[in-house]
Amino acid sequence: MKQTKLIVFTQMLDFVSQDEMLTPLGRLDKYISSENIFNRQMVARSLLDTLRAISEDERECVSVLERIDRLADDSEPTVRAELMEQIPHIAIFCQENRPSIPFAFSKYLLPIVVRYLSDQNNLVRKTSQAALLVLLEQELMERGDVESLVCPVLVDLTAPDSSDDVKTEAMAIICKVAPMVGRDVTERLFLPRFCEMCCDSRMFHVRKVCAANFGDMCGVVGGEATEELLLPRFFQLCSDNVWGVRKACAECFMTVSSASSPDVRRTKLSSLFISLISDPSRWVRQAAFQSLGQFISTFAGPCSNTGQYFRDEAQWIKIHTCSMIVLTRQKCPCGHTGVRHPANEHGSLVCLTVLSADEPCCADADAQKCLPEETQPSSRAPAQEIPEQELFNSFHYWRTPVPRIAPELELELEDRRPSAPALDRKQLQELIENLEPHIDDPDVKAQVDVLTAALRATALDSGLEDAFLEPRAARSNPFSSQQPSEHLPRERERECVCVTLTTSTGVRAGADRMCVSLSVCVCVCQWKVRRTLAFSIHELALILGDQLTAAHLVPIFNSFLKDLDEVRIGVLKHLYDFLKLLHQDTRRKYLYQLQEFLVTDNSRNWRFRSELAEQLVLLLELYSAQDVHDYLRPLALCLCTDRVSSVRWTSYRLVSEIIRKLSSCSSLLVSFLGELVEKFCHSQKWSGRQAFAFVCQLSIEEECLSLDQFSEHLLPPLLQLASDPVPNVRVLLAKTLRQTLLEREYFLSSVNCQQVALEHTLVALQTDVDKDVKYFASVHPGSTRLNEDAMSTTSSTY
Prior knowledge:
By secondary structure, the chain is mostly helical. It is built from 39 helices and five strands. The strands form two sheets. The protein has a three-stranded antiparallel beta sheet with strand order 3-4-5. A two-stranded antiparallel ribbon has the order 1-2. Helix 8 runs parallel beside helix 10 (164-181) and helix 25 (527-561) crosses helix 26. The chain starts with a helix and ends with a helix.
């Protein structure tokens, strides 16, 4: 025994000594072709050390760079990702040693970065995107290379034929790259595609990325391009069907406003902000409230002695005092309305009136009246002498201290955080009252309109909406004979009214009256009432017929799509029942809106997504094969990758039904089957490969496509799973072959060209090292069905 250990130890010493005897380049050559993935990963990690070791020899440095290009072709994604993580460090080394290797980066490294941007593997793509941003931030890339090599690739990745994930990632990178490449390149290469993506109707993810980065894009291209090209797209995004897109617009509203002219800000953006702060979604309203002070600050003029203001060219001038919206407003000695710092009664005033660049706030002699005593000229150093970096020190900006939150509590607190606005009703009323004496000023009027809308919106979250909206509701209801204070029934009574209306059978004669009543019950009722109606609106549509439904119920239905999840679930559970009653043209419009059901207020609400998958199965019969391929297919594939196994299993059945729907069109079917093979059978995750086996089994059991089509397009990649390293995948494959395929005479016939391959695969599974694989490949339990078995054996680990 001791002798054996001595031999092994001696061999290890020999192995180590052999490595030590190799040159850095020889060691690189030894492991770069290793069959062991770990060794090739180590090669990628040690590239920088190797270059440093041979930095004195220009020829050997070039040899290492050539081997980097060879390593970039590695078939293993983890090796490619590891290599890409090292590229920025190697680029810095090349920059430091530029005299000896002047073209190293542009010749050897940059092509790899550009190529990996369109890599099929998600990890490699994301790593290359991060590397690209680092290279740009460190100014390691020549401007000409960025414009000629990187930018065209990013634009191509956002083409209509790109996959949704790639398109979304590329657009996010474009938005981050735009400020780095400057206005000229952005306007010529990025701006047309950005405008196009803002209107992408297929998937909301791209529109959400555009909305989130809209302000940055406006800041890059300047005011003229913003008003001519971007603002029309911004108006569309602010009225998007998906609340997440509207929320992103509310969050970037201040930067968009600062890039616009005062006239546009006053006449267009103020009314647009009002629509966001009055949005049906509480998340959009909350984001708008958080941006309220920032947006109001863009109306401020150069007369502000403290705080911040925006010049016409959208330059944000920061001074070292508070610039957030404040709680009280007073009249400045110069005659303009100002605001006082909330932390100090005697704080300085900030005028909110926009003046021309050459118009002073007040006469020079009176200028000091706008300043508090402690800020008037004295022997102390003036503010201009403060170091520039200190002007942006967060210590100088007043805010309520934010407590530190443990990471494990963030998710819980996010679900429980209050939706109350930043300012309460009393504070908003004070602001409006102080501004109203100056309402003749168009800018002040715009601010008053925005603040009034904010005041109205506070009622939506405070339970005061009935009292606040009573007068308007009374005026809009032609059947009301009551006084405004008595017009609206209580919440429980309104809920009973909804139930009564939905269970009535003889209401067709009074349909118009009922529809108006429903409309009023929806522009003022509590969410519980809307929820009751959402669960019953399909019954109303059945009573009213397609014409009255299109005229009166469709607008109500559309408002429910943007409502709270508690209301949307009622619409979703009867989505098929409602849409089937609509005319075909009206029904087809909802194809663009189905994707918004993927977004919920709480991402843990997996039952919402499961219900969506079940409804999509029913909706397949309402649409053509082309519509199913263009709109329902992306939703199904997205649901197949859900975090919750129950949603995924339901989605696999949806995929099999899509196969059935597309089987009538050969070109669409072949395209979809090829996509399934690429996304699932060749997936890096074992769960995706297992899903492919399950979809194949369902397609045969449910007769979703012909056996000839299955043998040609799905059987060859399915048989390849026999060599899968994960036993769970091989178990499901064995069940599929033994319990489903071999039950069909077609696969036992010698006419089938795949019979030999099928038999060889089954024999290989019967001799598998895993006992479960061997069992299911050898035995055919007559009472066991794959549908039940697959769920029982994999749901706990899948």
